[in-house]
Amino acid sequence: MKYIFEVRIKEGYTAEQYADVWVRASELIQQAPGARGTELHRKIGDPNGLIAIAHWDSKAARDAMEAQHDERIAGIIRSAAPFVEIHRVGSFEDPEWVVMPAGYKEK
Questions:
Q1: How far is CA 37 from the centre of its chain?
Q2: CATH fold of 2-92
Q3: 52-67 per-position pLDDT tens digit
Q4: Average pLDDT, stretch 67-83?
Q5: Exposed, middle or buried: residue 40 (CB in 10 Å: 0-12, 13-18, 19+)?
Q6: Residues in domain ABM (predicted)?
Q7: Does the structure show a pLDDT above 80 at 79?
Q8: E strand or H helix at 56, and its extent?
Q9: Structure confidence at residue 94 (pLDDT)
Q10: How many C-beta neighbours within 10 Å does residue 102 have?
């Protein structure tokens, strides 16, 4: 599963400030069973536009992590609230198969 979020940095703040918060929360979240990593990307040509992608084994694994309320994670996320707007783009299942062009090598 992939969970994708669009992040907008508010005026007066930087993507680097959010990245610090994001890393601290992600380090804790990634300790949960079924967590498979996270990514944070800056939008080309827009230093205040980011996209965050969280990878999970399943929706059930992510739901279980969220059900186990961790005040450390909640506190870190609350600390970012004044300087970001976060919109959930959606949840996507990993494909059963992937088609790649000939010669493509995964990085």
A1: 9
A2: Alpha-Beta Plaits (3.30.70)
A3: 999 999 999 999 999 9
A4: 93
A5: middle
A6: 4-64
A7: yes
A8: strand 46-56
A9: 80
A10: 4
